[in-house]
Design goal:
87 residues; mainly beta; Folate-binding fold; 4-stranded antiparallel β-sheet; two-stranded antiparallel ribbon; 2 helices; 15% helix
């Protein structure tokens, strides 16, 4: 699989580290109930179809990326910098 980094261009997926679904960016507050933290740390959906994932370009530009991909066809339909998505 190849990902097209907005800064580095097309790269092999081995340059990247997969961190999980985009909702991984939405941490519970420190004072939230233990159940909220348990869900955040241990429960993950595994949907078939289009998902948005968080990836880190570890062996490249060291940027966090949101990758839109189809888990059934393995098609990558978009890659965006997290920093630009937060604006």
């Amino acid at each position: 699989m190849r990902l097209t980094c907005p800064l580095c261009g097309s790269r092999d997926r081995r340059e990247f580290h997969y961190y999980g679904a985009e909702d991984y960016l939405h941490r519970p507050a420190a004072e939230d109930a233990p159940d909220a933290w348990d869900n955040y740390l241990h429960l993950r959906d595994n949907p078939a179809g289009v998902v948005r994932d968080l990836w880190y370009h570890e062996l490249g530009c060291a940027q966090w990326l949101i990758v839109t991909r189809n888990t059934v066809t393995h098609e990558i339909s978009g890659v965006a910098l997290v920093a630009e998505s937060a604006k």
